[in-house]
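Predict the 3D structure for this chain.
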Amino acid sequence: MKRNVGIVLILTLVLLTIFGCSKGSNKTEPTDAPTATKAPVVENTPAPEPKEKRKIVLLTIAGYYTTALKEAAADYAKLRPETEVVIDIISDNAAYKATFDSKMAAGGKDAPDIIHTNLLGDLADNIDKGWVLNLSDFANEPNEYNGGKTVFEGIDPAYHQYSYDRNGRVGTLTFDLVGTGFFYNKDIFDKEGLKEPTTWEELLEVAAKLKAANYIPLSMPILYEGWMHNAFVDWSSRSLYPEMLILPGDARYDEAVHKRNTEIKYDANADFDFGAVYDPEKQYTMVSSGRYDNQGPAEKKFWTLLKDLSQFYQPGYKTTDDPTVYSLFISQKAAMLWNGSWQVGSILADQAKMGDKAFKWGTFKFPDFAQADPLFPGKARGILVPGHLMGVTDKKDEEQANRAKDFLKYMYSKDAAQKIFERTLEVGEFVQGPSLVLGVTLPD
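Done. Predicted structure below.
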């Protein structure tokens, strides 16, 4: 969410005014200079029709960039007064999908115009249903708010593949990254003589010592334990991924979209499948056959490990909500917090308010095992994926879609996005993680 290319246009007009229209020059024109032809005067020429005023709605989740998005909408209105951008807020992911689905099933007239496509189910299915617009042409349009670069040229190309559905259509734009991991209180660790754990064995030892020192070792919403489960499944099963790729000879294969798949070879120690596009039928077959996420000894090991870890969660962890979990960490009752990169903005803002009660903090990633285990080859990867993926609702109204696309161009310009990230951190709301809009920088 970012910067304004309109400034360049304004400067151009100013320079034209100074150097092209000045009447105060002392320069003598040659006598044989051609005489300018006057434009014919047309009497009673009607003024151009003003553009119809319209409202577009961007539906987002509470707390994520909300203040900055509202400010961006107000700034945009100064450039495009014919379009009112409303930032509509909803409580959580489940409510988001339920709201969108119900409005589209009712015809879509009252549905939001700009949406988080990754919260709405399978992208290809939603494009096929006529609920989400195909943005393939739009992605290659010049963005006048971003120096004339195309929309795609303004976004980190390493993550373009996340914009495509499995059929090769662009249906969404990546805005930021999101990662998961452990936050920890460095002051508590120093006081107790503890070091940042790098293995699961060390993590359990550290947690036991923190519990003996009367701290809550680890606070987290119980639903977030699912991320750990997913990371363990990825670790134990990713050697199967090459078998699930869309490849030449498959009905879905499109060389322009899936060529990267032909280059992917399993490598236990690398992000070997970056850019991969998987076949949903092959995935279903892999799961239903019991080969994926049903690894016998591997599954037993990670569920036993999670059971051992659970003794160190906050009391009543099954019913503790996210804000309460966070408050345990920021109040220094809990020494560690398992959460996402979006939490950084809140921590920075709260630390600034705490004065002499502020504490030093750090992060560490999803750990490895102390001893290599063939059931879990290579290293754990954890989770790092685009967070906000933005698309446009297909309301069968070209003008409405064009208004929504224009605001997306503004939002994905370097200047506007920079401001959105900066303001979000200033007010202590959630940024998902690093920006994928090229040129946006964040403080260390």
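The chain has a mean pLDDT of 87.
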